[in-house]
Amino acid sequence: MTIRQKILDIAKERILILDGGMGSLIQALNLGKICNDHLCIANPQKIIDIHEAYLKAGADIIETCSFNSTFISLAEYGLEYQAYEISAAAARIARECVNRFPAQDKPRFVAGSVGPTAKGASLYPDINNPGKRTITWDELEAAYYDNVRGLWDGGVDMFIVETVFDTLNAKAAFFAISRLMEERNIDIPVIVSATVSNDSVEGKGRLLSGQSLEAFVVSVQHMNPLAIGLNCSSGAEKLLPFVREISKTLKDKKLPCMVIAYPNSGFPNSQGIYEETPEMMSGKIDAYFKENLVNIVGGCCGTTPAHIEVIAKKAADYSPREILPEIQVSNSTQGIWLSGYEALYAENSDVFLESISKIDTKDINEFRQALIDGEFENAADIARDIIDGGADILPIEIDDEKILNRFLDFALLDPYVAKVPFYLKSANTNVLETGLKRLQGKALAGPMGLEEASKIKRYGAYPLIGV
User: Fold this and answer.
1) Angle, helices 83-99/44-57, rounded to nearest 10 degrees
2) Which residues are within 8 A (CB) of 293 and not within 5 positions of it... i.e. 6 or more apart?
3) pLDDT digit string (tens) for 224-233?
4) Is the pTM of this model over 0.90?
5) CB contact at 8 A, 207 and 167
6) What is the CATH number of domain 3-328?
7) Which of 213, 72, 222 is nearest to 136 (CA)?
């Protein structure tokens, strides 16, 4: 039986328990300014003690101490050259801890923590310079590949791509995981968890990169995630409406995916200390159980084994959220979902193409000419006018990678343009890939043959075959 099936079987019977905070417990050790992840090599016993405390508290799943184990994040400590080694060590430690606990009545699992890095591929560090980026897709994908390769070689059961504030970063991580799975001929379950922006309002959560939670769910479906959810962000009470939103989105779209939630223990005080006690936090997380919103629950910043123990005992009294059967995903009646900042549905791709055909020919011609002339800011303004005129998808037909990249610099800076899905039309697969490396949403892309379609799907796009 696969790891995915084992977890799904357990999740049908009860709520699974994830562990709690790692960084806050390391901070409490007063070891000074250190790289937490490097302890997996420099002082592994400290990490072993934390893992075992969470396992004794009732955790079914423990996360590796590898949240910052990409060479991007490790560069802050001059440790970028050890990215693979630290990732592998983090996984080995967690694996050894799990193996020391009896599995007959309570199987335990290791989730490889894949953090977001501090850099967002969709974010603009300088709005006066639309072409400037702090990180590119290729840099992210390379960094994530070393990270997940080390975690897998060290013995994880699954990956958890967490604290996602920019879906484009997550998609680069997914691409690296897909590359690893293809090379090793393996299937690795993936959990993905986002963090909502402070600008979010109840019933309409958003990531820092601007995407709605509904669009986020649509954008990550190409990885067939084991679970989707939220972590960090805030305490359990404030996170509740957004967990509801994730659960409802999965149900409405008939997606066979679990819901995971692991909030902070409230907010830190002026000294950076989280003051919410285990009893206070479990009392607030009680609504998650009563409303049948979650399949996996745990804690993030400020939580301790004591928090997880109380939460685990309370979760045992409740039934888990119902998981829809896998067969519904392949049902042709499900239609197609695309996304920009917002999500868009159609019964089939012909509906999208028909919608595009209704765009005023004059506007399309002006848009193309502006691209050809290198008037990218003007092209973005015309795109805005096209959308303002009622278009719910933006067609971009171009065969030049540099032109497409420059246009996207300006187009994605405008939330009004970025809210809709894009249709990248080119016979050149390299052009399509260039564009998809910039889009955090789920785009249309084509035309192409079956062989190219398989590759394009790894970017999270919907391929138009032979169109």
Assistant:
1) 40
2) 243, 244, 247, 259, 261, 287, 321
3) 999 999 999 8
4) yes
5) yes
6) 3.20.20.330
7) 72
